[in-house]
Write a structure and sequence with these properties.
Structural class: alpha/beta
Number of domains: 4
Strand order of the largest sheet: 1-12-11-10-13-14
Bound molecules: iron/sulfur cluster
Oligomer: single chain
Strand content: 5-15%
Distance between the termini: 111 Å
Length: about 600
């Protein structure tokens, strides 16, 4: 049965319809995973909200437009700065976020006044900017703020501004995909045809569904410039508000992300007769194919071939280097939807990798048709995965790399698996010839970096092992030191006994006298035995030397082990002898006269 109920989903068996494993001889007429439907309660979705799809993916990319989010501040923060789509005018759209900052009182008494104030304030702060998109969010849609009426009044008051409304609150659809749709259709309904672009080439296109992630658009624009093709509007990478109003003037819609922007391409075809050419802009061979198709459409194949030849000469050998190292590596693609079908063949054909599992957050049936048609047998295809499913699938397929967004990427990293940001990229651009090499480089770096292996080391175990080995060492040392202690003790007893038997200097009449002798003789003996210099200046020193010298001669004769004894051990033995003699002859002595005042 190709639809699979994962073990983690036993409590939510409805998830079975969303997980598919392709078997030999099957096509999508037999099985197609369920998609673009409501997330099943109990399954923690990775999806974004509908407002997010409109603002973060499409509208927020425009480089000359104030993005005003009418709602609580969290909605603005949710979609600010989380993707890297630069622009050639200083990244205006990345630097700023605008929000009407709705508070409880606005929710209770209405937020229209607050919205009007925010619109006027935003334009006043940025007097050079004359374009704005206003988005509704859950709170403002639920209380029924009439944002269109507010926008109309603001436009009237300001005179020279143009504002577009996106009424697509978070709850409007099952995922961010709804926001793509609402913005596409709203734009073509209200804005396309309201601006006449300057035509500078006999070959004109719109590039649809590319958002200039880390410079993708700049790569595509460079190719078109070399071919002499004018891009009327780029929907929406590095795009301007007014260029998108002039989309009706292009001869061809070159469509990349059909999921987020196929709607506007379809409408432009229906309403203005502009054909839609679907291309894959990621992948080395796909890049050649796309340029050849555009060249063929306009009858400028030679220009396309010239661009291809130049780019291939620059990048083919680099890609080959990575291919050699990436061939056979298993990869999971867990992204929004379209990248599954854009990337699977590119990774397999360009780099020899094997795509073993794919997961789509917001893909529709169309996306699954494409990806299953392009994908391998045995590969796992999932719609709207939850976290536990990710873990289970990782266990099943054991990939070398996961291409996914930062949220799932954080989970993947915890499992010490290499991850490359498949949404905002690690170090893009990833489109075109140079992009294919950049992507291969990031994958190579991720897979071959020792970091993940190092991160997988359980330091706690290391410490335990170290502790154990320390313990072992300590035990060994203890055993050894016990041996030494026993050895020293034995030798101490022998010498003490000998001195007790032979030496009178320890038995002088007074305790102070005994103590001076014992310390003096033993310390001098230690010096003689260890080769240290002995002082013989004072009378007492001469005395101690005399006693010590004889003692040492005798000890050497009596105890042959002294000749090979380490100096440290000699010192230790004689120090103990000293202590023992003091104990015996002084502190433990029962001689009552030792401390008698008359003596
Ligand atoms: S779900 Fe609603 S409240 Fe949450 S970010 Fe989206 S629009 Fe804002």
């Amino acid at each position: 049965m190709p639809l699979k109920l994962l073990k983690c989903d036993e409590a939510i068996p409805e998830r079975e319809k969303h997980v598919y494993i392709k078997e030999k001889g099957e096509d999508t007429t037999q099985f197609l995973p369920s998609s673009n439907v409501e997330t099943i309660p109990g399954s923690l979705s990775e999806r974004g909200c509908s407002y997010c799809g409109a603002k973060l993916v499409i509208g927020g990319v425009l480089k000359d437009t104030i993005q005003l989010i009418h709602g609580p501040i969290g909605c603005a923060y949710d979609t600010w700065h989380t993707k890297r789509y630069p622009s050639d005018n200083g990244n205006f759209q990345l630097k700023y976020v605008w929000s009407s900052d709705m508070k409880e009182s606005h929710v209770v008494f209405g937020g229209e006044k607050q919205l009007k104030k925010s619109i006027l304030e935003a334009f006043a702060e940025f007097p050079d900017i004359k374009r704005m998109i206003v988005y509704s969010t859950c709170a403002t849609a639920l209380i029924g703020d009439d944002i269109r009426a507010v926008v109309k009044s603001a436009e009237k008051e300001l005179g020279d501004v143009d504002i577009f409304c996106v009424e697509c609150p978070g709850f409007a659809g099952v995922s961010q995909s709804k926001g793509h749709h609402v913005l596409n259709i709203g734009w073509v309904n209200e804005k396309v045809g309201t601006f006449e672009p300057e035509i500078t080439s006999p070959y004109t296109i719109n590039v649809i569904g590319d958002y200039n992630i880390q410079g993708d658009t700049f790569v595509l624009e460079k190719y078109m410039e070399k071919m002499g093709v004018q891009i009327i509007a780029h929907f929406t990478g590095n795009g301007t508000y007014d260029s998108l109003r002039g989309m009706h003037r292009a001869q061809l819609n070159v469509t990349n992300c059909a999921r987020s922007a196929g709607y506007i391409a379809n409408e432009l075809k229906k309403r203005y007769g502009i054909p839609r050419l679907d291309v894959d802009t990621w992948g080395f061979d796909y890049a050649k194919e796309g340029l050849r198709k555009i060249g063929a459409f306009f009858g400028i194949e030679d220009r396309a071939e010239a661009v291809i030849a130049e780019e291939v000469a620059k990048y083919e050998s680099k890609l080959a280097w990575y291919k050699e190292r990436l061939t056979g590596k298993k990869v999971c693609i867990w992204t929004g939807g379209p990248r599954l079908w854009h990337w699977t063949k590119a990774l397999e054909d360009d780099l020899g990798m094997k795509v073993v599992a794919m997961s789509s957050k917001f893909g529709h049936q169309e996306d699954f048709e494409k990806v299953i048609a392009r994908g391998q047998e045995g590969t796992i295809y999932i719609d709207d995965s939850n976290e536990l499913e990710f873990f289970e699938v990782l266990d099943m397929v054991k990939p070398d790399l996961v291409l996914t967004g930062p949220r799932v990427g954080a989970l993947v990293k915890k499992l010490h698996l290499p991850y490359v940001n498949g949404h905002g990229y690690h170090n893009g651009p990833y489109m075109g010839f140079e992009g294919a090499v950049n992507m291969a480089r990031d994958m190579y770096n991720a897979i071959y970096s020792p970091l993940m292996k190092l991160a997988a080391l359980d330091v706690r175990n290391d410490e335990t092992e170290e502790d154990t080995s320390n313990q072992e060492n300590n035990e060994t040392l203890k055993e050894k030191s016990d041996e030494i202690a026993a050895y020293i003790k034995e030798r101490t007893e022998e010498i003490t006994t000998y001195i007790q038997e032979r030496c009178l200097w320890q038995f002088h009449s007074r305790s102070w006298d005994r103590e001076e002798n014992i310390n003096g003789v033993i310390n001098t003996a230690i010096k003689i035995l260890t080769g240290e210099e002995v002082g013989t200046e004072t009378l007492n020193e001469k005395l101690y030397f005399a006693d010590a010298k004889i003692l040492v001669v005798e000890l050497k004769v009596k105890f042959s082990w002294l000749a090979s004894m380490e100096h440290a051990h000699i010192k230790a033995v004689l120090e103990l002898v000293r202590q023992k003699l003091i104990g015996i002859a002084i502190t433990g002595s029962l001689n009552a006269e030792l401390n008698h005042s008359l003596y």
